[in-house]
Amino acid sequence: MLSNKRENKERMLGYCFILPAVIYMLVFIGYPIVYNWLISLQDVTASTLGSTGRDFIGVSNYKAIFGDPTFRKALIHTLVYTIGCLVIQFSLGFLFAMFFVKKFTFAKPIRGLIVISWMLPVTVTALVFKFMFAEGNGIINTILLNLHLIKEPVGWLLKGNTAMLGLIIANSWVGIPFNMLLLTTGLNNIPDDVYEAASIDGANGIQKFFKITVPLLKSTIMSVLVLGFVLTFKVFDLVYVMTGGGPVDATEVLSTYSYKLSFQLFHFGEGAAVANVLFICLFLVALVYLKTISKDEMM
Amino acid sequence: MNKRKIHLKDSQKNALFCVAAVVIACVFLFPLYWIVINSFKLDSEIFANIPTLWPKSFTLKAYQDQLGNLSVTLKNSIIIALGSMVLSLCLSVPAAYGLARYRVKGMKLFVLVFLITQMLPSSLVLTPLFLIFSKLNLLNSYLAPILSTATISIPFIVLMLRPGFLTMPKELEDAAKIDGCSTLGVFFRIVVPICKPTVITSACFSFVFAWNDLAYSMTFNTNEAMRPMTSAIYTFMNQYGTKWNSIMAYGVLLILPSVIIFLTMQKHIVAGMTSGSVKG
After folding, report:
1. Residue A46 at interface with chain B, using a CB cutoff of 8 Å
2. CA closest to A273 among chain B residues
3. Cα–Cα distance between A105 and B161 in angstroms, integer?
4. Per-residue confidence (pLDDT) for residue B3, from 0 to 100
5. More confident: B128 or A246
6. Cβ–Cβ below 8 Å for B127 and A22
7. Distance between B82 CA and the closest CA of chain A, angstroms
8. Phi, psi of B228 (to 5 degrees)
9. How many domains does chain B have?
10. In-domain check, residue B12
11. Alpha-carbon span B8 to B3, nearest angstrom
């Protein structure tokens, strides 16, 4: 009886520590998500913003956005952008991880140093890449002209395809060290003697990579890719600052389009509907992610 | 002889790798260099046909041009980042400790709440939060960006700190309790001091997350007097798009906290980054 009481007291104390943060997240993230579904079913514009009794219009907002060519483009752009970023940041991140995991004097300090790009404000990253990609005297054009790789200056951010490429490169700059770090943790967990044994058996570098490194890193690779997908798919700041979704709407992605609908055109209902499509995409991928890590080491 | 040869080979290999690493670092960190170096250039050099890798004459003019409106935006950025930091720490450090120390019902669910909310994008909650804050009359206040940016740090810190609390020996806490220390006393006098480095790292992360935020503050605080530096630099770019020296000078001031924090506690930051963003 007495120990039961103590157990109860302990449990109450635990809740006192945990619940404030949980409640906070539920109030400021959970409730808005639910509220977002409500808004997406309502007719919310600048004029009805303040009123309490807004009309429910069913799925009209969803019908409107799915009939909207810009929305379909934004969905495709988001996918192209995400896959492009994943390919670059994962492959380069992997190369960097393999390189810096080697034991040489500068390995750790330099690996640590390049992680700094992850900590910088995305606003500034977007601005400096915009500056470097500038048409007239941008440094990237200057370098490429000097190497004779291009004949005349390219207006990188002024054309749809190259603007998308510019965004992918800028985002990869932030993503590469992140991928590198997570993969390094995985690489460090592979015992050296596995490689030694393979060397004795006469395996070469490529064989070792595909027969040992990749299979043993499978779960790390999986979670890096899924996490990378989620973090890239939700891009906002970078696109908003670097291209603003332009030229015209060639780099419009779901988050910037949702923002435009809500805060520039004041179609809050449609903006909420676009955000919900983004949410569903992320949710599906996140489910895969949670499944992978719960197999690993969650608790 | 043989032994010596191998030794030489190893040191050569080491040197080769070091050179390669330095080259990688130089190429990779070039954008950072470009921000800093261009902030010291004169307008004439910025508009020159061929960009210079090193300024012909160093000048602080771009910084002086900025100082006029800087005092307001800098103050706003500091208030928002500090407010968000204090709020996040007060909520997340106890939560991480509670999730590590106490066996409570629904613990898996709580960890899940943090894992999921950490992955959700700000653009998802922008519209609803805007409507909620407008109803509560919180738009164009410090509270709106503080409350919203804290949602970025809280799950991150909880996930980052929990593993450390899990491995901390319980004996110390038990001993303090036997000596008559209350649970809160144990938390503040034993647990937090022992985990000081990681708690400080958490503080740094939450400061930087709020300082770096653009989406929330730009949406909620449209009033110029309430804008932080991130949205001010964005507005400035739209107005003076080609004054890259001024924009980069602003950029230098914006990256300064991250760079200082990063350089002083790199080891903790790198460790926290992996544990904070991956698993519970």
Report:
1. no
2. B124
3. 30
4. 46
5. B128
6. no
7. 16
8. -85, 180
9. 1
10. no
11. 9
Residue B42 lies in a domain: no
Measured between alpha carbons, how far is B184 from B176 in angstroms, rounded to an integer? Answer: 11
User: How many angstroms separate the CA atoms of B36 and B30, rounded?
Assistant: 10
Tens-place pLDDT, residues B49-91: 778 888 887 888 888 776 667 888 899 999 999 999 999 999 9
B67 and chain A in contact, CB less than 8 A: no
CATH code linked to domain A69-296: 1.10.3720.10
Q: How many whole angstroms separate alpha carbon B86 and alpha carbon B142?
A: 14
Q: What is the per-residue pLDDT for B24?
A: 92
B126 contacts in chain A (CB < 8 Å): 258-259, 262-263, 275
The ipTM is 0.88
B1: confidence class by pLDDT, cuts 50, 70, 90:
very low
Count CB-CB contacts under 10 A for residue B53.
10
Q: CA-CA distances (angstroms) from residue A105 to A188, A204, B9, B11, B77?
A: 17, 25, 15, 10, 39
Half-sphere exposure of residue B35: CA atoms within 13 angstroms, side-chain side: 23
In 3D, which of A282, A299, A291 has the Cα closest to residue A219? A291
Q: Are B55 and B41 in contact (CB under 8 A)?
A: yes
Q: Do B113 and A26 touch (CB under 8 A)?
A: yes
Residue B56 lies in a domain: no
Identify the pLDDT of residue B187.
Answer: 84
Contact B104 A15 (CB under 8 A): yes
Burial class (CB within 10 angstroms; exposed 0-12, middle 13-18, buried 19+) of A7: exposed
Contact A163, A251 (CB under 8 A): yes
Distance from CA of B154 to the nearest CA of A (A): 7
Closest chain A residue to B115 measured between Cα atoms? A290
What are A62's strand-pairing partners? none
Q: What is the pLDDT of residue B219?
A: 92
Whether B108 and chain A come into contact, CB under 8 Å, resolves to: yes
> Which CATH number does the domain housing residue B130 bear?
1.10.3720.10
Among all residues of chain A, which has the CA nearest to that of B135?
Answer: A50
Q: Does residue A240 surpass a pLDDT of 90?
A: yes
Tokens linked to A251: 């780099």
pLDDT tens-digit series, residues A163-198: 999 999 999 999 999 999 889 888 888 888 888 888
Question: pTM here?
Answer: 0.89
pLDDT of B142 reads 94
As a whole number of angstroms, the distance between CA A250 and CA A78 comes to 11
Picking from B104, B127, B150, the nearest residue to A262 by CB comes out as: B127
What is the amino acid identity at position A118? W
Lowest mean pLDDT among A47-51, A242-246, B2-6, B223-227: B2-6
Share of chain B above pLDDT 90, in %: 34
A185–chain B Cβ distance below 8 A for any pair: yes
- Domain range spanning residue B239? 61-277
pLDDT of residue A298: 44
Is A21 a residue whose pLDDT tops 50? yes
Q: Which of B124, B158, B267 sits opposite A278 (nearest CB)?
A: B124
Angle at A178 between CA A177 and CA A184, to 5 degrees: 80
Over range A14-28, report the average pLDDT. Answer: 91
A196 touches chain B (CB under 8 A): no
| B146 in Cβ contact with B80 (< 8 Å) | yes
